Amino acid sequence: MQANPCGHEWVVTITQQEEEPELDQALVDAVAGLGEFSRFAIYVNKFFKPGLPAQLINKDTVIEKLSEHEVNELIDKVSRNKIRISHNYGCIYTYVPVYYTGNVVGVLVIESNQELTERCSMLAIYMLNIYANQLALLHKSRLDPLTELLNRQTFDKKVIDIAAQAAHGVTHSDVNHRHWYLAMIDIDHFKRVNDNYGHVIGDEVILLVAQLLKNNFRFEDYVFRYGGEEFAILFQATDECDARNVLNRFRACVAEYPFPQVGSLTVSCGFLPICEFEMVASLVQKADNALYHSKNMGRNRITAYCELDIQDNKHNDDSIELF
């Protein structure tokens, strides 16, 4: 297939995007530029894992939005038959798969008055493949290489996004009014593991704790390896009690897990809600202060930042402190 004059432009535009929202918009613009149709919707499983829901990329689409079940059915059908075409009430629907490493991770739904030309269909497949490859590169760049949890750089960006939402009054995420919370979690006495069993076993412990984190939090929450044996979680809960229960469930899960060679381990945690805009360092410091309180009180426990007895650094006399 020979590239058309605009082909090089959209390939460059898609492949030079370094942020997910801009990448999504570049794909939407490229698909809209094909010219043979104007009504379409793009669904992509951005986690690249079967069973997780595909997200609608162009939320302002004019065609009827599909349910999660309907999208999964479509992805399964195009997996077997590649492009599918159906006729319904005088309209033609074309379903184009989004491929990545041989697996279908999404589908482009096109509504048109006539069948697409072969050239248009092939260009659509080409665009979607390039998008999926770039999305996968962005996804991998956000991961910690050992645990495949999200990394520290991604943590900073996500906290800023959530704190900015809080600053604009977006304090809950859905009709259930779930708020965002930040938790910092640390493996208790981890140095003893490295000293007694070596760093290979230490890495295995970190991997197993990371897997327990993945298993105990929802796919819409964000789990990070913050550094060393410390982890960070951005998760949603209805209130502080609900947040504490979520974290306690994970804490108990770790305490009951039989770690090979090491045996029993525990974790300590500190957490707080993200209610207003704060710098990342400030939020982390507060969560860490609560975490250190858990450590000081005997470990294997959860502490909310609001429980701490922190006094303002103010003097009750009239003296002036210069330094």
From TrEMBL:
Its cofactor is Mg(2+). Residues 178-307 form the GGDEF domain. It is an enzyme of class 2 (transferase). GO terms for cellular component: plasma membrane. It holds the Pfam family GGDEF. Its EC number is 2.7.7.65. InterPro entries: Diguanylate_Cyclase, GGDEF_dom, Nucleotide_cyclase, Rev_trsase/Diguanyl_cyclase. CDD domains: GGDEF. It comes from the Bacteria. Coiled coil: none annotated. PROSITE patterns: GGDEF. One of its GO terms (molecular function) is diguanylate cyclase activity. This is diguanylate cyclase. It comes from Pseudoalteromonas lipolytica. The lineage of its organism: Bacteria, Pseudomonadati, Pseudomonadota, Gammaproteobacteria, Alteromonadales.
